[in-house]
Specification:
Layout: H1 2-23, H2 33-57, H3 59-74, H4 79-99, H5 112-132, H6 143-149, E1 160-161, E2 168-169, E3 174-176, E4 181-183, E5 188-190, E6 195-197, H7 202-233, H8 236-242, H9 250-264, H10 266-294, H11 299-333, H12 342-347, H13 367-375, H14 382-391
Antiparallel strand pairs: 1-2, 3-4, 5-6
Helix pairs in contact: 1-2, 1-10, 2-3, 4-5, 5-7, 7-10
């Protein structure tokens, strides 16, 4: 029983840490323990550690700590890439070590020894493609082509020059402070890939997320079939009902079967819980990026649109409030009118509620065209390459 509770507490603690760290800043968790725990994990814990280092080792140790922080967080480095390889490699090793002995089983064939390896191999290939492919670096040799491919909307993108690269800055591009380069159709800098996600490798990134979600679901299903096969091979249900007189019903058998699984196959259960948590996070992440692809928007642009729409809404609210105040002052100067009903005043809609701010995304040209632009980016098309050869 103690082992069961230990596994349950371990799973809940893992879920809490992962969700708090990755999703704690989401609006749905605002004002909750999840948000406070996220702030502790991302800022508070490090601040306390820095103070401890200062108190115990002095300012030189803090300077060394800041140097490590700069290397890990502000410069390209392979640390997170190595962590990804460690996670996927160790997870596959644990599954192979603990579960391949039961393959083939009653519900699973021997081919899954090889398909699982193939699935992980494809995931690593997508990881390498995303990490080491050109994200769409804007240079003096191709800047004119990107300027023609992405017109300025004069809303969130206006004509300007990159202050660092000293070249015209195409619409939808951004200078990455970590990689120190301008990237076309910039989405974000991904620490897991040690690379920017941009016009040329966004397709690999989205495929990477989707494929790893499918790997997690495949792992959960395969382990579930292995455990179901063990129940069948060892006739656990038959023994419980015939020899121990347990009623053959789900309510009576489920707790005992679960107890047997936790005692006999706790490693598989723990891995399934881990894969389920990761799959849940990947599903949310993929849904977000799929929406961006369908609307031809990037993560960088979504933040720009939020800032623009918020500013525009405040401007419109200020104008509406000024007009309402002017109208009220005008009514005071007029002859006294019959007093309006309190109920009518209560249910009358405020002018501020009628304010609508429209997002005019000129790059959104329909689902099919948007998906095609992600799958076949401008810089990989024949017309773009021909223009590049002529200009060269």
């Amino acid at each position: 029983m103690a082992l069961q509770w230990l596994l349950v507490c371990h799973g809940l603690a893992t879920l809490l840490v992962v969700v708090s760290f990755l999703c704690g800043q989401w609006p749905i968790f605002e004002g909750t323990f999840i948000q406070r725990f996220h702030l502790f994990l991302t800022f508070g814990a490090y601040d306390y550690f820095r103070r401890f280092v200062l108190f115990s080792c002095g300012s030189r140790a803090v300077d060394a700590l800041h140097s490590v922080e700069y290397f890990c967080c502000d410069r390209p480095n392979p640390i997170i890439q190595l962590i990804y390889l460690l996670i996927i490699g160790s997870t596959y090793y644990i599954i192979a070590k603990s579960s391949f002995v039961y393959i083939p089983g009653y519900y699973i064939s021997g081919m899954h020894r090889y398909t699982s390896f193939l699935a992980v191999g494809v995931g690593i290939i997508l990881f390498l493609l995303t990490s080491f492919s050109d994200p769409g670096v804007v240079k003096s040799s191709n800047v004119s082509l990107y300027l023609s491919a992405y017109p300025y909307d004069n809303i969130i993108f206006t004509e300007k020059e990159c202050g660092t690269c000293k070249i015209p800055k195409p619409a939808r591009s951004k200078h990455c402070s970590i990689c120190d380069r301008c990237v076309a159709r910039f989405d974000h800098h991904c620490a897991w890939m040690n690379n920017c996600i941009g016009e040329r490798n966004n397709r690999y990134f989205v495929a990477f997320i989707l494929w790893h979600f499918l790997i997690c679901m495949y792992g959960i299903l395969a382990l579930a079939l292995i455990l179901a096969g063990r129940l069948k091979d060892l006739q656990v249900v038959h023994i419980l009902t015939v020899y121990y007189g347990i009623e053959n019903s789900y309510r009576e058998l489920a707790p005992l079967v679960l107890q047997w699984l936790l005692n006999s196959h706790n490693t598989q259960i723990l891995v399934m819980v881990f894969l389920a948590v990761i799959a849940l996070l990947l599903a949310g992440f993929f849904t977000y990026h799929a929406k961006l692809c369908l609307t031809n928007t990037t993560t960088n642009e979504s933040f720009k649109w939020q800032e623009y729409l918020s500013w525009q809404r405040k401007v419109n609210e200020a104008k509406t409030s000024a007009e309402a105040l002017k109208a009220s002052l005008g009514e005071l100067n007029q002859e006294k009118k019959p007093r309006e009903s309190k109920w009518k005043t209560f249910f009358r809609r405020s002018r501020l509620e009628e304010i609508q701010v429209v997002k005019n995304n000129i790059y959104d040209k329909g689902y099919l065209h948007n998906i095609y632009e992600v799958v076949v980016p401008f810089s990989s098309r024949r017309s773009f390459l021909l223009m590049k050869s002529k200009s060269g």
